[in-house]
Amino acid sequence: MAIIKVEYFSEVLGMNRKVNVIYPEPSKVEDYQVTEIPVLYLLHGMTEDENTWLSRSGIDRLVRHTNVAVVMPAADLSFYVNTNYGMAYFDAISNELPKVIHNFFPNFSTKREKNFIAGLSMGGYGAYRIGLGTDHFSHVASLSGALSFDGLEAGFEQNIAYWGGIFTDLKSFKGSDNEIVTLAQRKTENRPKLYSWCGEQDYLFQANEGVAATLKKLGYDLTFETSKGTHDWYYWSIMIDRVLEWLPINYIREERKINFELN
Q1: Above 80 in pLDDT, residue 260?
Q2: Strand order in the sheet with 69-73
């Protein structure tokens, strides 16, 4: 296994970008030159960057016995959307980045069934926004994702300068493709399999619970799990095990003592 730091110029964003890539052990890939290595795009949360999954979760240790590559991009505070202030992060990460990665690593699969995306908090929203807004990914996972702003309107209004730069305003957000439920309603073909977890003491729990119920009514293949837990890396570093176990890859979940049970 190797951890490779890639810097490239994004034509979409007009600036240099950084991404970390975990390359699987050649012994875990039947043929070192195989062109079908599965890929997991792993998205960070607010205040974080391309290094956070490596430094906080031990993802490199967790995947060392698998055949999956992991791509961890930086998205600043963009919420992984084409922002109101003119920066097209959605286009850069959902469309440009996979092409950049394939140019650097031509043996990474471009097949939908071998491409997955997951994230936490802001990145959980980003994973659903990109996974439902494109046809690139067969499996999409969220940990404590900001999947809805219902019940959180006060926080939106208190920081309108930031949120206005991202989504314009709540009125414009509602019914747009940036609203996960609306986007899910509009997607009728190539629906990905979905996974979602949120801690019951997390301030985003009700939002996750409500979105999960709606997605199931819409007929999505969704695995929604809960447990005790807050909005914290202690839980995310454990639950990424569960995401890896859920994905269609060669993965053996580590046996680690935890003080909570999944519901």
Answers
A1: no
A2: 2-10, 15-23, 69-73, 39-43, 115-120, 139-143, 193-199, 222-227
CATH topology of domain 2-246: Rossmann fold (3.40.50)
Q: Where are the domains of the chain?
A: 2-246
pTM of the model: 0.94
Instruction: Give me the half-sphere count of Cα atoms (radius 13 Å) on the Cβ side of residue 212.
Output: 22
Among 89-93, 131-135, 153-157, which stretch is predicted with the lowest mean pLDDT? 153-157
User: Is it the case that residue 171 has pLDDT exceeding 60?
Assistant: yes
Helix (H) or strand (E) holding 157: helix 153-158
Type of residue at 42? L
Nearest to 202, CA basis, from 170, 237, 180, 226: 226
Sign of torsion over alpha carbons 141, 231, 245, 65: positive
In whole angstroms, what is the distance from residue 80 CA to residue 232 CA? 21
Asked if residue 101 has pLDDT above 90, the reply is: yes
- Those residues whose C-beta lies under 8 Å from the C-beta of residue 249, and which sit 6 or more positions away, are 38, 40, 66, 67, 68
What is the residue whose two structure tokens read 């690593």?
A: 105
Average pLDDT over residues 225-254: 91
